[in-house]
Amino acid sequence: MARSALWIIVATGLLLASAAPNYAELQERDILATFGMMEHASLGRLPDGWIFVEPPPSEDPISLDTTTRVQGRSSLKFSVNGAPPGSKWHLRCVVHVGRNGVKIGDRLVMRARVKTGNMRNARLRVGLGASRADGSTIVAEEHRIESSNTDWRLYEASIVVPENTSRVSAGIVLDILRTGQGDATFWVDDVTITNGEMLEVPVRAQRNIRTFTYFSIHPDPYENARRYDVVILSPLDWIHARPIKYYNPQVQLYVYCNSVSTVGTVPGWMDPLDYEYVTTQRRDWLLTDPQGNPIPEPGYPGNLMVDIGKPDLQQRWATRAAQIAQRCGFDGVFIDNITYNYLSSSGIACREYSTDEEFRQAFTRFLQTVVPMLRQQGLKVMMNFGYPWNEHPIYETWMQMADIILAEAWVRVKHDGSLFFLHPLLQLRHIDALNVPHPVLFAAQGRAAPAEEQERRYLLGCALLNANQRTAFHLAPIQYQHPPDYLPDYELAIGQPLEAYELIAGERRSGGVFRRRFSNGIVLVNMHASQAFTVSLDTDYVDAYGKVYRQGAVELSPRSALILMKPNSGLQITLTPVGGSSRRPGEETQFEVVARNTTSAPMYNFTVRVSIPDSMQFIVGSASDGGIYDSVTRTVTWFIPSLSASQSVSRTFRARVR
Fold first, then answer.
1. Could you give the CA distance from residue 523 to residue 201 in angstroms, rounded to a whole number?
2. pLDDT digits (tens, 9 = 90+) for 265-290
3. What domain count does the chain have?
4. Does residue 637 sit within a domain?
5. 308-362 pLDDT, tens per residue?
6. Do 225 and 155 fall within a single domain?
7. β-strands 300-305, 380-384 pairing
8. Which of 547, 565, 583 is the last residue of a domain?
9. What is the domain extent for residue 69?
10. How many CA atoms lie within 13 A of 536 on its CB side?
11. Both 222 and 128 in a single domain?
């Protein structure tokens, strides 16, 4: 295989000659992401992710003990006396293959600390297993504990994830032997499953391009923590919050809460109002049509519109939203559907509000109640203004109450199920609005499918024309899907903006080329829908795929963008097939990636990322030294904590020709 077939992307950390080096902390990946049995919140008495495999006997011996623990807030405690012969309590924590780092071929190691009290006619089992989709076990290993041990003892179990594995699981089983009644008291804590990968924990990467994601969650919580600065999770995804926060303490996590309806569409949804409560006990909170019938939320017939102007509804909404956010480890609450003309734009006629102005006043009262209550609990507030955030003075009032606002449609908008670009002048108005005149974080969202590579980069380029330190960006298709879109351009170290954007070709009304310079890069955007322009580059640049753009003329096709950074001349990367190249389908080739510091000063905290082309298949588990393979972006990433002057490091991986 030719060397040029694989792309290498290098993102360097910030090098400060006068500052002490900030070494990355590499830790072994925890597949369960528990970090202590009760380091997370839980909806019940069990730690996050743990369930009963079968209904437990009538006696409930399980509790959370805050006085006896190894780490975290508490340990999982079992305590039974005189339990019936043959009774069993079986707990399990399941992780599906393809999520949170679990791959076929991985060697997984489960570790658990156990402390026992009285064990009479009882047996404790802790173990690790791999099973098929139908639940049948393929391979398992466990430890059996039948005698008292008053000190904490570490137990380990190990398996290799075989082909056809659907999920792996950690299990804790208490068996009362059939020879008679049994007694048992024991504690289990610090349960982890690792696969040998080394991760940078906490994530220290500082992106110049801030990002967020909305509902579209990467299968690996670590990748969410590494990729995004702001994450909005649905109440069904609450379990991801604390692992993401563990990996990246700087990330902002918001739990989704709808403001205009009570949610009956999705079973198990943590609705601040509680659909069953509203429909059985507080039907006076529902908006009604002229005939007195409840009004479904447009587009979501299982949800029912509510009267947001009622003070007792506002109190319940704020109290329960705060409880959900705090219990699950979120930083704030995302209040959806904050719009000025909600009634008329949706064609809603109700008895409670006859005009948009009346509904707007009710929304203002709603925000004036719930926002202070949320902030009193230490929570931030995000609001969804749609895309006309600068259309009416009311947004100035509401913006004062927000820590972050979301422009859900922007430059390219969704209407009646289809996407279309706004006129250049409207695009520029939205781009200019990124300089929000208030101390809030601004989240702009573009709409483009993964296959629309040029459109995705164009949307990001438009955002960068006027982005500041309070701007984050996200790409989404028409419907939110898994996994999320993520451009490699987000990782470019383009630096800080040096100037405002300027028009360098064409004209504002019909569209032309706009340029903005950054301390380590440049952004060029051609807004014209049909005309290409040729402009000049002042020096050499490189894009996210390693393509070099030489100083001189460059052509921008219609509605396209270039996001470029200056080459890192101090770090030299080479990629070489070991033992020759292979071109025949099915054959494997090992590749060596060498990073060399060609300067006279050490480098700290940088990543090396290799992109695997479509013609090859990465061999899972083959990346050396904790390299992480991302199946979504098809890249292998290594975190390099430090590299001395004139020194080099070597990493390897294998790939198979398709």
1. 32
2. 777 677 899 999 999 999 999 999 99
3. 4
4. yes
5. 999 999 999 999 999 989 988 899 999 998 887 888 888 899 999 999 999 999 9
6. no
7. unpaired
8. 565
9. 31-196
10. 2
11. no
User: What pLDDT, on a 0 to 100 scale, did the predictor assign at position 417?
Assistant: 80
Same domain, 574 and 554: no
Q: Which among 539, 538, 529, 528 has a CA at the least distance from the CA of 505?
A: 528
Residue where the block lists tokens 């963008």: 561
pLDDT band at 528 (very low <50, low <70, confident <90, very high): very high
- Does residue 496 belong to any structural domain of this protein? no
Give how far Cα 232 sits from Cα of 26, 241, 479, 536, Å. 27, 10, 16, 40
Residues 6+ apart with CB under 8 A from 120: 182, 183, 184
Strands 198-200 and 541-542: unpaired
Q: How far apart are CA 495 and CA 490, in angstroms?
A: 12
Last residue of a domain, one of 196, 231, 249: 196
Residues 6 or more apart whose Cβ sits within 8 Å of residue 211: 227, 228, 229, 230, 472, 473, 474, 486, 490
Q: How far is it, in rounded angstroms, from Cα 233 to Cα 247? A: 16
b/e map of 562-582 (b: 16 or more CB within 10 Å)?
bbbbbebeebebebebeeeeb
Q: With 50 as the cut, is the pLDDT of residue 18 above it?
A: no
- The letter for the amino acid at 403 is D
**CA neighbours closer than 13 Å in the CB half-sphere of residue 276:** 5
Instruction: Check whether residue 261 and residue 364 sit in a common domain.
Output: yes
Q: How far, in Å, CA of 268 to CA of 236, rounded?
A: 7
Angle ∠(658,107,238) on CA atoms, nearest 5 = 90
Mean pLDDT of the chain: 88
In whole angstroms, what is the distance from residue 410 CA to residue 194 CA? 41
